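Lab meeting minutes (informal)
Scribe: AK
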Amino acid sequence: MDNSSGVGVLDKAVLVLNALEAGPASLAQLVTATGLARPTAHRLAVALEHHRIVHRDTQGRFILGPRLAELAVAAGEDRLLAIAQPVLTQLRDLTGESAQLYRRQGDVRVCVAAAERSSGLRDTVPVGTALPMTAGSAAQILLAWEDPDRLHRGLRGAKFTAAGLASVRRRGWAQSVGEREAGVGSVSAPVRGNGGRVIGAISVSGPLERLSRSPGRVHAGPVTSAAERVSEAMRRGSQS
């Protein structure tokens, strides 16, 4: 199927954006992903950066820029958030713990939706909070299915290992015991979009005195089920 619009420069710019949808990319990685000539890929990425459609992370890699998020908010069409919010509420009610949805943005993960436990000791992560990609079960999920080069770069300074991420891929969920914050545990599972690509992580988190030193033993089932429901709804929406 020919995806050309007939406007060559626009089609090439979309190739760049499609490549960055998978995560941060150097210029060399953009060239490989898009098939564009290096000068063309660079010229387009820099032009998109000028309009804030593309941005750069702390390592100088190209990432999707803030203008895209602004346009999504303005259009009110962020399907993932709309689908996930009621699922997070159900997950909170089922587990009795705070539930969150995280997305990766460059070198951090951002809480984009949450359902907080209403009372008692809790782990509060306000929407908009940026957390490191080096600790926590959601970081493990968002990194575990990256390509090998990005995965190993992401392990620098991380509190988890390549072997740990291999276990995450095998079982389909991750747990954290005091990685991000002492006394806090969490369990996360992947939300997948088209082609099975991981586009987010659903989590529950709370104090270890409730979650124990093995939080996945209790919460892996409901967290994985919640993530699968969101993933299925995202797939159905893309086919309609």
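Next up, CB showed the second protein from the same session:
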Amino acid sequence: MANTKRTLFLKRRLRVRNKLRKVNAGRVRLSVHRSNKNISVQLIDDVQGVTLASASSLEKDLGMVGKNNVEAASKVGAAIAERAKKAGVEEAYFDRGGFLFHGSIKALADAAREGGLKI
């Protein structure tokens, strides 16, 4: 298997997820997906296999502000923190997948923390 960008991303995603599962058993997972234009996040209960809450920059009220993905990500982070409170979730572990923790991923995590979600 050649070390293309995609295979390196998949390896990193599996490595991050496996480490997090060992450490945070029983907690809710805050899973993030980022594309070139949008960002989405879900609160997932892996024990029951259900999604408790979600937010995305594709939603009309959270829509992209200009072309600044960091600003949109912070809006999505604040929204998921608010929806987590409604779902009764105060604590979650941050699953960034294979994405590096900077830019829009970091902005989302910081906004979720400011909204009261313990990550």
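CB comment: Helices lie at 5-23, 69-87, 104-114.
No objections, moving on.
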